[in-house]
């Protein structure tokens, strides 16, 4: 994997991590479950949480 690819992967991981942290704080466990398997729903949540 290229250096740029590694950086992009790390940014994506950080984004998912931030989303999960915010969902936990909001006690939205069902949303976490759905976001792990539904990309469109995850994108909707990113927008909701400005990520």
Count all strands and give the number: 0
Distance between the termini: 25 Å
**pLDDT < 50 stretches:** none
User: What series of H and E elements makes up the topology?
Assistant: HHH
Strand content: under 5%
Bulk shape? elongated
Number of helices: 3
Task: Give the overall average pLDDT.
Answer: 95
The whole-angstrom Rg is 12 Å
| Percent of residues in helices | over 70%
How would you sum up the major sheet?
Answer: none
Structural classification: mainly alpha
Main attributes of the structure:
mainly alpha; 51 residues; 3 helices; 82% helix
Write the layout of secondary structure elements.
Blueprint (H helix, E strand, L loop, with lengths): L2 H23 L3 H9 L1 H10 L3
Tell me about this structure:
By secondary structure, this protein is mainly alpha-helical. Helices cover 82% and strands 0% of the residues. The chain contains 3 helices and no strands. The protein has helices at residues 3-25, 29-37, 39-48. It is elongated and about 35 Å long. The N and C termini lie far apart (25 Å). The mean pLDDT is 95.
């Amino acid at each position: 994997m290229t250096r740029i690819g590694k950086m992009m992967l790390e940014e994506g991981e950080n984004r998912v991590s931030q989303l999960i942290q915010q969902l936990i704080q909001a006690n939205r466990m069902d949303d976490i479950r759905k976001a792990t398997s539904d990309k469109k729903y995850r994108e909707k949540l990113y927008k909701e949480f400005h990520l």
